[in-house]
TrEMBL record:
Its EC number is 3.1.3.11. Mg(2+) 2 binds at D111, D114, E276. This is Fructose-1,6-bisphosphatase class 1. Belongs to the FBPase class 1 family. The gene is fbp. Pathway: Carbohydrate biosynthesis. InterPro entries: FBPase_C_dom, FBPase_class-1, FBPase_N, FBPtase.
C-alpha cells in the first residue's frame, strides 16, 4: 500500500519523532513545491522563462523563475505558525514572520530555485530548504548563523522527469515522488544509503586551470584511470544543478565537488553555506556519506554571514576522506 506524505508525517508526530509545527512546515514546503512545479512544467506557456531584469544581493542576474519561486516559497510558509523568520538566497536580508501570522519555533532558509542556468533549457532544477530552531527574542540576520549540525530538518525538491521531494529530520533520508494526477507525494524510497566507495565524480572541469593545487592533483589522479595512483577508471557527470548532482549521489553514489577557484579569489567557493551546502551536507551525512570543505566537515562550520560561500566536496565517505588527504599533502 502506498504511503502519502501526510500519512508519513502524521505517523512521525504520533511516534514523537517530530513535533506538529515541524510536520506542518515540511507539509507546507511540499505544498508550495507543487506550485513551483506547475510553473516549471508549463515553462514558456506560463510566461516564466527568461530574465527578471533584477540582480540578487550577490550581484547575480535573477531569472523570472528565481523571483517567482521565491514569492511562492515565502507566501507558502509565512502563514503556517511554524516559523519565526526566513532567509533566502534571493533576498538581501532575512524576513521576520509578518505580525498578522503566529510566530513559530523554527527558522527556515532556502534556495527557491537552484540550478538557474538549467531553467531555460528544460534541464533539472530544484528547491532546497534547511530548518533550525529559532533563538528567543528578535529575529535578525545574525539569528540564522547556526552551524549546520544543528539543523532539525533539511531537504530538496527536484523538478525533472519526475518531481521528487527528499528530506531528513535526522532519522535517515526519505524520498517521495509527486503523483501529478492525484497531487499526492508518495513514499518511494526509505533509508537511503551512499556506498562508501565510488568510481564516479562530478566537477565543472572547465575550471581546472583555476583550481588550487590539491584539487588539480586529485582530479588529475581521477582522470589517470586504472593505471594511475588511484587504480580505478572513474566516470564523470555534470548536470549543473546541485540538486540533481546530490540526488544522483544519493541514488547511486559518487562524489560531487565545487571547489574554490581563482576566478573570484576573494570568495571561498561558489555554493552558499546556508541555502545549499548545509542542507545538502545534512542529507548526505544522514545517508552515511560525508561532506567537507576539503579541510573539515561543512556541518561543523560556524556561519559568519547569511550569504557566505564555501568549497564543497560531498558524497562517498572514503572518496571525501581522500580529498581531505590531498588537501593535507599539497
Ligand atoms: P545558482 O544558485 O545560480 O543556481 O548556482 C548554483 C549552481 O547552479 C549549483 O546548483 C550548481 O552545482 C552550480 O551552480 C553549477 O555551476 P556551473 O555554472 O559552474 O556549472
Ligand atoms: P543511451 O542510449 O544508453 O542512453 O546513451 C546515449 C547517451 O545517454 C547520450 O544521450 C549521452 O549524450 C551519452 O550517452 C552520455 O554518454 P556518457 O555515459 O559517456 O557520458
Amino acid at each position: 500500500m502506498s504511503i502519502t506524505l501526510s500519512q508519513y508525517l502524521t505517523t512521525a508526530v504520533q511516534n514523537n519523532l517530530i513535533d506538529s509545527e515541524l510536520s506542518a512546515l515540511i507539509s507546507a514546503v511540499a505544498q508550495l513545491s507543487k506550485d513551483i512545479n506547475d510553473k516549471v512544467t508549463h515553462g514558456a506557456l506560463a510566461g516564466v522563462l527568461g530574465m527578471a531584469g533584477t540582480d540578487n544581493v550577490q550581484g547575480e542576474h535573477q531569472k523570472k523563475l528565481d523571483v517567482i519561486s521565491n514569492e511562492i516559497f515565502v507566501s507558502g510558509v509565512e502563514w503556517t505558525g511554524s516559523v519565526a523568520g526566513m532567509a533566502s538566497e534571493e533576498m538581501d536580508d532575512c524576513l521576520v514572520t509578518p505580525s498578522q501570522f503566529k510566530r513559530g519555533k523554527y527558522l527556515i532558509t532556502f534556495d527557491p530555485l537552484d540550478g538557474s542556468s538549467n531553467i531555460d533549457i528544460n534541464a533539472p532544477i530544484g528547491t532546497i530548504f534547511s530548518i533550525t530552531k529559532a533563538p528567543e527574542g528578535e529575529i535578525t540576520n545574525e539569528s540564522f548563523l547556526i552551524p549546520g549540525r544543528q539543523q532539525v530538518a533539511a531537504g530538496y525538491v527536484m523538478y525533472s522527469p519526475q518531481t521528487i521531494l527528499t528530506f531528513s529530520f535526522g532519522k535517515g533520508v526519505v524520498m517521495f515522488t509527486l503523483n501529478m494526477n492525484t497531487g499526492n507525494y508518495i513514499l518511494t524510497k526509505e533509508n537511503v544509503q551512499i556506498p562508501a566507495t565510488t568510481e564516479e565524480f562530478a566537477i565543472n572541469m572547465s575550471n581546472m586551470r583555476h583550481w588550487a593545487a590539491p584539487v588539480k592533483e586529485y582530479v588529475k589522479d581521477l582522470l589517470a584511470g586504472k593505471d594511475g595512483p588511484l587504480g580505478k577508471n572513474y566516470n564523470m557527470r555534470w548536470v549543473a544543478a546541485m540538486v540533481a548532482e546530490v540526488h544522483r549521489v544519493l541514488c547511486r553514489g559518487g562524489i560531487f565537488m565545487y571547489p574554490w577557484d581563482n576566478r573570484k579569489p576573494e570568495q571561498p567557493g561558489k555554493l552558499r553555506l546556508m541555502y545549499e551546502a548545509n542542507p545538502m551536507s545534512f542529507l548526505i551525512e544522514q545517508a552515511g556519506g560525508a561532506a567537507s570543505t576539503g579541510k573539515g566537515a561543512i556541518l561543523d562550520l560556524q556561519p559568519e554571514k547569511l550569504h557566505q560561500r564555501v568549497p564543497v566536496f560531498l558524497g562517498a565517505k572514503e572518496e571525501v576522506a581522500r580529498v581531505e588527504e590531498y588537501h593535507k599533502k599539497f
